[in-house]
Amino acid sequence: MADHGSTRMSLAERRAQLLDAATAVISRRGLAAASTRAITETAGVPQSVFHYCFDSKAALFRALLERENERIQAIVEASSPNSVPLSAALEAAFVAHLRRAQADPSHFLALSELGVHARTDEELLALTQRARRRDLDAIQSLLQEWRTGLDPHAVDAWASVILAGVDGITEAWLTDRDDESALRSTRLLARAMETLAGDHAVPHTNG
After folding, report:
1. Is 186 helix (H, G, I), strand (E, B) or coil?
2. Residue 49 is part of which domain span?
3. Same domain for 90 and 190?
4. Total-model pTM
5. Looking at the 3D structure of the chain, how many domains does it have?
6. I need a surface site. Which of 13, 46, 91, 169 has the fewest CB within 10 A?
């Protein structure tokens, strides 16, 4: 179906449209079926629009990963503990991530397949590694903001456990679709991390 509104869309809007179409194709038919033709047909635009927005299909895949990384980063940055317990801040972030998966499971399944593909592509792998490092840094900042004097040698490991836990809970839900189990897991992980961090605070010393 032709897209008669193409002249009224900005480049950013058009790119977002193609990213959404690519996600739809991957979720329904798999990554191997995500050709430029399939993506543009799903978006309802001519293939020339694709090449106007992206240099290549690899560039579109990079943009997909970058968009997801930005969304995750926004969730983490919005989870500042302030005056609430760390467990409450962590649980809120975990639940926000889980709710996104529950709202659109096919989107997350598509991203999961793309993530597997990224491990076999040097450029995409570098992108996912940088994104992971940013996520870890943001979680470390969250822990350090909550309590000064945390053991700096343990914070990175805790951040890795938190990130792995969130990913694992989401992947488990995508498999069993058990809402109650996922929520129980988020609460347990959040409370466990608050307890662990509290037990490993470094006492302040004078001088």
Report:
1. helix
2. 1-54
3. yes
4. 0.75
5. 2
6. 13
